[in-house]
């Protein structure tokens, strides 16, 4: 085992977990995020919890970041130029024929990241089988380089038709671009994706070029500051598809880190379910991560992450491994307001870290979910992590103006409404990853984490009719725990449309060997997946394959089982391969235990006045430190720890499991 630090940057707080392998010591820290310069919040968490000698012993610093995502959300990245095959200049604008919202008559697609004047064509053509139909014209690349220089282009994306089958023209175009004097980053589509579908591959390559301008300098600055503090290990960055990348790889392939932050909590939930599922009595788990800005959820079945191979951010498709995490704007900082019709609304806009909820006393005046929870006693009065002093009076002052326009009687009722609406938004997101997939959430356990996740555990259980809520150790920093447990993962894919027949598997073996050589990961655990479909269909299912062990019948049977599970029937039609996928996994620690929670320290005893949603009334309830919880305790009560608070309503009971998890079980129906 090695000493590892995990730091997750959220919209409101930056969370740190350190696991010292030499002593078994656990350190946690939670600091306000600094949106204008996220590295400052990361370094503040390091300075608050990690002395120089311990930082010097740290082997891996694993970082989950939203820098790439924020660059896309804010449209603040590089000025990108696109070089593409003649006739394909407008692929980014033509998009697909579907609409993001079919019921919005006024829906318009987001503008492309590259304006038309910077999308330039070159003469060349490669066929789908990789044969060269027409050679690349060097003069076209030189003219593009001149135009980019005149326009002040920072980065260039090169996307030529069918380059996944033969990348020679893309490599030559990059070489000519350098010879013409362009010194900025160049993204080549065959290196970024390696899959067909021109729109998706073009968009992915452009996104890579767009966010690299911010991601690379950010990571290198963070690495430099850590080393100035004595860090001598390796900086890793989590991927959207789980696992982590080395610094150089993350800076070179920043599109793989777009969902770096939300994935860590899902990965930690999957590891918890895989290692403790039998002892906890849970098979299917729903990750419920309630942060300051958003609610993130994922469905975990059989301890496995729900992995997709294409995601989407703000209407932009990305061909990249992607953990299916659904996010809604329902976090602690989500702003409550009255709409034009006098209805109470919550989110998606957030007060974020600056100025934050009104009760933080940092300049915020708008009412938020945190203000409502504090007013209802769901959060203990006083200090919280990050050195923030909570003000009940400020929370009440922010909530009071909502009573008039909504017609709600009093601040108490407004606060109850805000919390219930936020919980309803969260439950709807959970249904999106369960019911929409044919999974009944009533048979699952809710794993509640994030700074506000344990506050909403019982409310989510009632909304979803779930009987079990699990609050893991270090619940408030559980996403950072997922970082501490990450492996180093690299992946590559190659489109290869052909029938699944007797000749297919030997060909797949040769292709995967080429892909693994490209990944260059000595000692990595190799994983191979195939995108398969019935001949004549458009969409695929991804099936794991054990090369050298599986025969044609085994692969076909595995696909039929997955097809029946997804669609409720099977078809006799022959199968075909669409894409071969190779993943290399370097396991940092083969046997990593759960990271236990540190002691709460002083405080956290006595009673408090809190609102019981089950009873619809105020109650005087005990406040118990997590480490003091013995036996079964029935709600209402609060369980406190350094980075989170667990709210247990009437009708529920909580018990400390030997693993360190809190098990909340339903005792009666509302």
From TrEMBL:
<dbReference type="InterPro" id="IPR045079">
    <property type="entry name" value="Oxoprolinase-like"/>
</dbReference>
<dbReference type="Pfam" id="PF01968">
    <property type="entry name" value="Hydantoinase_A"/>
</dbReference>
<dbReference type="InterPro" id="IPR043129">
    <property type="entry name" value="ATPase_NBD"/>
</dbReference>
<dbReference type="Pfam" id="PF05378">
    <property type="entry name" value="Hydant_A_N"/>
</dbReference>
<feature type="domain" description="Hydantoinase A/oxoprolinase">
    <location>
        <begin position="201"/>
        <end position="490"/>
    </location>
</feature>
<dbReference type="GO" id="GO:0017168">
    <property type="term" value="F:5-oxoprolinase (ATP-hydrolyzing) activity"/>
</dbReference>
<dbReference type="InterPro" id="IPR008040">
    <property type="entry name" value="Hydant_A_N"/>
</dbReference>
<protein>
    <submittedName>
        <fullName>Hydantoinase/oxoprolinase family protein</fullName>
    </submittedName>
</protein>
<dbReference type="GO" id="GO:0005829">
    <property type="term" value="C:cytosol"/>
</dbReference>
<feature type="domain" description="Hydantoinase/oxoprolinase N-terminal">
    <location>
        <begin position="5"/>
        <end position="180"/>
    </location>
</feature>
<dbReference type="InterPro" id="IPR002821">
    <property type="entry name" value="Hydantoinase_A"/>
</dbReference>
<dbReference type="GO" id="GO:0006749">
    <property type="term" value="P:glutathione metabolic process"/>
</dbReference>
